Amino acid sequence: MLQAAPAKVNLFLHVTGRRADGYHLLDSLVVFLAAADSLHWAEAPALSLSLDGPEGGALRAEPDNLVLRAARLLAEATGVSPRGFLRLDKHLPVASGIGGGSADAAAALRLLCRAWNVAVPPDAMAALALRLGADVPVCLASRPARMEGVGELLGPAPALPPGLGMVLANPRVALATPAVFRARAGGFSPRAALPPGWADAAAMARDLSACRNDLEAPAIGLCPAVGEVLAALRALPGCLLARMSGSGATCFALLPDAAAATAAATLLPPEWWRWGGGLYETPA
Ligand SMILES: C[C@](O)(CO)[C@H](O)COP(=O)(O)OP(=O)(O)OC[C@H]1O[C@@H](n2ccc(N)nc2=O)[C@H](O)[C@@H]1O
Ligand SMILES: Nc1ncnc2c1ncn2[C@@H]1O[C@H](COP(=O)(O)OP(=O)(O)OP(=O)(O)O)[C@@H](O)[C@H]1O
């Protein structure tokens, strides 16, 4: 059994406030890309996880993996004993602002519901997801969404133009999300005004340029290479908009089509993690 765990990109990220517990209130437009980890499950009496893929090495030293935390939480919530051999094929860089860990945790929840033949009502599932991380609820459906609250309030995204292309680039510096939020200075941004949809990528880029990622400046302060990545993305042929995703350090460029994005990614420095393609096609 297999479940894809697609990367998320925050097309903009406004920090609109702060809760009493220190978590920040956000307004963000989130999309998912064909760039993905994949999680595999096979029958086995005990629960285990093996790590594979080009980015798996970074996680081997970690005492706990979000996939196993998700499995234990689901087992506890449904009263089953956790079982199965899980293999995580890791392609997304760790701690990079494209929610790889969150996508893996969401994929584990979905895959194990099938594998263990358990059903969790959507509201309870969303609450389980939020316990694993603020980005996990939006990753459960892996479809474009307007994300608010600390990440738990999900609404429809404006209708997106077909065939969008996206280039991702990461300078191979891990950025810890709490450190980036802590480094943020200044006040809060308003909720963005968005239209019901965009007819083409240029109109979408024009409206998105009026928004921002409020974590971009603090991330550049902690990791100046983010500034270099943004400059390189802006110089790509066909780039309509370049911005950092999440808490960084991965940045994206929006292009009118996926083929142009795939070609443009090859122009970036080979020592960076880079990817070009289209949006994730959510299965019906
Ligand atoms: C920045 C984003 O990537 C935007 O999509 C997410 O909000 C981060 O989501 P995540 O990585 O799943 O975050 P979590 O693992 O829940 O939180 C990590 C840390 O980030 C900070 N955090 C996270 C989410 C949020 N709305 N406010 C915060 O202040 C908190 O310090 C928290 O301890
Ligand atoms: N399967 C996993 N994949 C990635 N990170 C994991 C995983 N399991 C545990 N982690 C831990 O979670 C941390 C955050 O990982 P993740 O890749 O989701 O960060 P991120 O890309 O900054 O996410 P976000 O955009 O949601 O802030 C990592 O630093 C790592 O310590």
From TrEMBL:
Domain named GHMP kinase N-terminal: residues: 65-141
Highest taxon above the source species: Bacteria
Transmembrane segments: none
Residue intervals of the GHMP kinase C-terminal domain: 208-264
Binding site for ATP: 93-103
Pathway: Isoprenoid biosynthesis; isopentenyl diphosphate biosynthesis via DXP pathway; isopentenyl diphosphate from 1-deoxy-D-xylulose 5-phosphate: step 3/6
Catalyses which reaction(s): 4-CDP-2-C-methyl-D-erythritol + ATP = 4-CDP-2-C-methyl-D-erythritol 2-phosphate + ADP + H(+)
SUPFAM superfamilies: GHMP Kinase, C-terminal domain, Ribosomal protein S5 domain 2-like
Active site: 8, 135
Keywords: ATP-binding, Isoprene biosynthesis, Kinase, Nucleotide-binding, Transferase
InterPro entries named in the record: GHMP_kinase_C_dom, GHMP_kinase_C_sf, GHMP_kinase_N_dom, IspE, Ribosomal_Su5_D2-typ_SF, Ribsml_uS5_D2-typ_fold_subgr
One Pfam family in the UniProt entry: GHMP_kinases_C
HAMAP family, alphabetized: IspE
Role summary: Catalyzes the phosphorylation of the position 2 hydroxy group of 4-diphosphocytidyl-2C-methyl-D-erythritol.
Protein family per UniProt: Belongs to the GHMP kinase family. IspE subfamily.
Name of the featured protein: 4-diphosphocytidyl-2-C-methyl-D-erythritol kinase
Lineage: Bacteria, Pseudomonadati, Pseudomonadota, Alphaproteobacteria, Acetobacterales
